[in-house]
Design a protein that fits this description.
There is one protein chain. This protein is mainly alpha-helical. It is built from 18 helices and eleven strands. It has helices spanning 27-38, 56-66, 71-82, 109-112, 114-117, 138-148, 150-156, 158-176, 190-193, 202-205, 232-247, 262-282, 289-304, 341-352, 387-399, 403-419, 440-451, 463-466, and strands at 54-55, 94-95, 186-187, 259-260, 305-306, 311-312, 315-316, 321-322, 385-386, 425-426, 433-434. The strands form four sheets. Strands 3-4-7-8 form a four-stranded antiparallel beta sheet. A hairpin with a 4-residue loop joins strand 7 (315-316) and strand 8 (321-322). It is globular.
């Protein structure tokens, strides 16, 4: 396994006299080395050992960082992912590399059976994928990649080719996944939301009968410490949900698990703003995407805002009720420009208050409520701080005029990324590395923060955020 992607913490080793210590190299050089080590020629793996394939939202975040190293590679990253899109519009959460042994990762291609079980839904025949999805960050990533080198993008027809696929992706979510019937998208598996093991899923997951332990082998424990990873009971439930979805031919409907998640829907709204920008760039007439993004924002407020919690909560569609757990997902709508000011101000107070501690007890925002009964500072999505969610919150704080807090969060992220070896996630109190080091999106978003320096205009937004271009004056997200 590549030395830039290994289990954290790193075991002590001998120092070679003629090799300068890794910490002595500039941060951007070390971050670039991580992305170089993960590059396959057409995409970037999050981690050579633990995650040896292409992941959907990982690739979107990685492309955002790659645009500063090679806009061509960033475009290729997204194009490779979009080429695996299903005919019904879904972008699968994993695109499998056929050269990787089947036992290197579970669930493997022979579990998902995409080309056969997904035939009715239009799964591609020439590439193996999973059948579930991940958060829709892709249009935002495509727009930012375009802005990195508009000349190259136009010469290659990057947006021209990406636009119809991104529009179909959004159409799939908006029309096939509105399982609650009130305008929000539902996820049908915790892996779809991306925050796989969040305590926010415990209540709806409790209805799921786990798959027998003998029916699968967890490859993740070969690369990550068991105390950092989901429990066997939770993993058994993940496997059961995925197998049931597969056995239904990946047909969407209200099954045992259907949850309206604030981050997933906020990212869809943010990408609708970005898709609106792309359509204007291409001169493509189409639906009023800005209005659609604003309707998503309104539905989020109506369906998922909880005044007592001071944040958005997940809604269990099957039970018809909010899930009383504070996860970082409920802070991500701070990204949205149409969020009412009073709600944005409340979210800022919540993120800086005792439940998340930003600027006080924590330097980075944890993935779960510091005061919650299920809080664990090391276990996957049950408390550690992640760099992608903090990157989103940094943008959200800046969008709503919280310049000082955004600057402090940016500084904390850069310091932590370098100190922890670009870890997958960190203890929110100590910044101790958890999961694997040399993680793809940690390195990529570090590069983005380094290059997208906060030289702001009067509205507190960076030049990239403003997306200044032909006929475009408003902010995408």
């Amino acid at each position: 396994m590549d030395r830039t992607a290994q289990r954290a913490p790193r075991p002590p080793g001998r120092t070679v006299a003629y090799e300068p210590p890794r910490a002595a190299l500039p941060l951007h050089v070390r971050a670039a080395a991580v992305l170089e080590a993960g590059w396959t020629g057409t995409s970037t793996v999050p981690s050579r050992g633990l995650y040896p394939h292409q992941w959907s939202w990982d690739s979107a975040f990685i492309a955002i960082g790659l645009r500063h190293l090679s806009p061509l590679r960033a475009q290729t990253e997204l194009e490779t992912l979009l080429a695996a899109q299903w005919a019904d519009g879904r972008i699968p959460h994993i695109v499998f590399n056929p050269s990787v042994p089947l036992d290197a990762y579970f669930p493997s291609p022979d579990f998902w059976c995409s080309s056969t079980a997904g035939r009715t839904a239009g799964a591609p025949r020439t590439v193996q994928t999973s059948g579930i999805v991940q958060p829709p960050v892709h249009a935002l990533a495509a727009w930012l990649v375009h802005l990195a080198d508009p000349g190259l993008s136009r010469a290659r027809g990057f947006l021209t080719r990406a636009y119809p696929r991104l529009a179909a992706w959004h159409g799939y979510l908006l029309h096939r996944r509105d399982l609650g019937g009130d305008g929000l998208v539902s996820v049908v598996h915790p892996w779809e939301q991306g925050m796989d093991n969040s305590p926010c899923w415990d209540r709806p997951l409790s209805r799921v009968t786990p798959a027998p332990a003998r029916s699968f082998r967890r490859a993740d424990l070969d690369h990550g410490a068991p105390e950092d990873r989901p429990t066997d009971l939770d993993y058994g439930r993940y496997v059961r949900l995925a197998a049931d979805y597969r056995d239904r031919g990946y047909a969407d409907g209200p099954g045992d698990f259907a949850v309206e998640d604030p981050a997933f829907n906020a990212l869809l709204a943010a990408s609708e703003y970005a898709l609106d920008r792309i359509a204007h760039e291409l001169g493509v007439p189409g639906p009023a995407r800005r209005a659609r993004a604003e309707r998503l924002t309104e539905a989020l407020v109506e369906r998922l805002w909880d005044p007592a919690a001071g944040m958005f909560l997940c809604r269990d569609v099957r039970a018809g009720e909010l899930i009383p757990e504070r996860g970082v997902s409920g802070l991500i709508p701070l990204l949205l420009p149409a969020l009412p000011h009073r709600l944005a101000a409340t979210l800022v107070r919540t993120v800086c208050g005792p439940h998340f501690g930003l600027g006080g007890t924590t330097r980075l925002v944890p993935s779960y409520d510091l005061l919650g009964e299920a809080f664990d500072p090391h276990r996957y999505w049950r408390g550690p701080a992640w760099f992608n969610t903090n990157w989103l919150l940094e943008r959200g704080l800046r969008r709503h005029g919280e310049r000082g807090r955004a600057d402090a969060l940016r500084k904390g992220m850069l310091h932590t990324a370098g100190a922890c070896g670009f870890a997958e996630y960190v203890d929110p109190y100590t910044a101790q590395a958890c999961g694997v080091t040399g993680f793809g999106w940690t390195a990529a978003l570090t590069l983005d923060l380094l290059h997208d320096r906060p030289a702001r205009g009067r509205n507190g937004l960076t030049e990239i955020d403003q997306g200044r271009g032909p006929g475009l004056t408003s902010s995408p997200a």
